[in-house]
Amino acid sequence: RGTGDGQPEGQRYPWGDTISDADANYNFNTADRDTTEVGSYPATGYGLYDMAGNVWEWVADWYDDSYYSSVHASSDNPRGPSNGVRRVSRGGSFDHDAFGLRNSARCDFCHQDRHGNNLGARCAR
Predict the structure, then answer these.
(1) H/E/C letters for each residue in 18-41?
(2) How far apart are CA 47 and CA 65, in angstroms?
(3) Are the CB atoms for 55 and 36 separated by under 8 Å?
(4) Lesser CB count within 10 Å: N end or C end of the chain?
(5) Order of strands, sheet of 86-90, starting from the edge strand that comes earlier in the sequence
(6) Burial label, 43 (beta-carbon count in 10 A; 0-12, 13-18, 19+)
(7) 42-56 residue pLDDT tens
(8) Which position has the higher pLDDT, 98 or 118?
(9) CB-CB neighbours of 49 under 10 Å
(10) Do residues 98 and 27 touch, judged by C-beta distance below 8 A?
(11) What CA–CA distance (Å, rounded) separates 112 from 10?
């Protein structure tokens, strides 16, 4: 939950504690009320783009409503339960309010066959 630019851990968003239309694509704040090209907003201190807003990011973790209150969640980079029905998604999207863009926000609407223009995946190398 750090910003990568020397700010303390626990920031609300990938860039700090406040949000504006200049930070991310959210809450239908663009003229066409749709997704934007990656890199349309400033990178985080880690050099990452669009970690919040634009599209929900479908992550590998299975969703479990009570997982983060378990002992497993106290470790660094907890992996989530070993199986489940729905995947976790993070980061919010162009059609979601600022609450879903918080670093701590996670959603469980990603069933295996779900698709839409507000859901994506991040490829990293």
Answers:
(1) CCCCCCCCCCCCCCCCCCCCCCCC
(2) 31
(3) no
(4) C
(5) 107-111, 86-90, 56-62, 119-120
(6) middle
(7) 998 888 899 999 999
(8) 98
(9) 15
(10) yes
(11) 31
Helix, strand, coil share of the chain (percent; to 5):
10, 15, 75
Q: Retrieve residue 81's tokens.
A: 């339960």
21: region left, alpha or beta (phi > 0 left; psi from -120 to 50 alpha): alpha
- CA-CA distance, 31 to 84, in Å (whole number)? 38
| φ/ψ (deg, to 5) at 98 | -60, -25
CA distance 23 to 18: 9
d(CA 41, CA 29): 13
CA 121/CA 53 separation, integer angstroms: 13
> Which residues have a Cβ under 8 Å from the Cβ of 103 and sit 6 or more positions away?
1, 11, 12, 13, 14, 52
Among candidate residues 34, 61, 31, 36, the one with its CA nearest the CA of residue 50 = 36
> Which tokens belong to 93?
């999207």
